[in-house]
Write a structure and sequence with these properties.
Layout lengths: L2 H30 L8 E2 L2 E2 H25 L8 H5 L1
Antiparallel strand pairs: 1-2
Helix pairs in contact: 1-2
Length: about 80
């Protein structure tokens, strides 16, 4: 893989990570603020607190798993000249 392809892959990974960050924030807002009007509790804890914390955490884990499996690639960032010396 040449340097141009490596930088292209790095940009792809950075963009995908930024999209996942925006999605995590959106999911947090929906699962936290979106259900805050519901008067449902579990073990004296409001539903919005559970979904806002645990739901966002689970979504984040799944999103990172997707990034690792589908977007990220294992790249050798070492300098080619150093290998030949």
């Amino acid at each position: 893989m040449d340097k141009k392809q490596i930088f292209k892959q790095i940009k792809k990974e950075a963009k995908a990570t930024a999209v996942v960050l925006i999605l995590v924030i959106a999911v947090w807002c929906v699962l936290g603020f979106g259900v805050s009007h519901l008067d449902i509790t579990f073990f004296h804890t409001p539903l919005w607190a559970i979904t806002g914390c645990l739901g966002t955490w689970i979504f984040s884990i799944l999103a990172v798993w997707w990034l690792i499996k589908k977007v990220f690639r294992d790249l050798d960032l070492g300098d080619e000249e150093e290998k030949h010396e």
